[in-house]
């Protein structure tokens, strides 16, 4: 009787062994997908990428259109749909005047003449203004043309996470920063 119990146990072990060895993952259907595991801890913050000129707009040089008469105030308007409320409220707009050789940031005062630009209530426009400081009539032939650079708020952060002050940069530094043509 002892031999028959041992032989039954041995036979069962052998059968189970054969059964386990002969089964493979391809033989049956896949089980249901288990639940999503917990989110791991956040990794380190990556470094700020290089400056990009994505969405930065540099206008062409715009010929000066001030009055040819001796006046104390003159202006001209340029239309550009890029002057949106978002740009005006949170972006940066830099304006430059060129006298044929030198590029000067606007606003600027020369002698008794002041040059600046404003945004009217009508979106999509910029007004270039020249006026005398004391109200006496004069000619405003200082600049031959003007240009503006529109920088959306998303492009004003430096690598260190600080906001860049483009007003402290020269015209050429701004153009080089964004890879724009002079």
UniProtKB/TrEMBL annotation:
The protein, known as: Collagen-like protein
Gene3D superfamilies assigned: 6-Phosphogluconate Dehydrogenase, domain 3 (1.20.5.320)
PROSITE patterns found in the cross-reference section: PROKAR_LIPOPROTEIN (PS51257)
Species whose genome carries this gene: Maribacter cobaltidurans
Signal peptide: 1-25
Entry keyword set: Signal
Region (Disordered): 29-50
Biased composition (Low complexity): 35-50
Domain of life per record: Bacteria
Keyword hit for Signal: yes
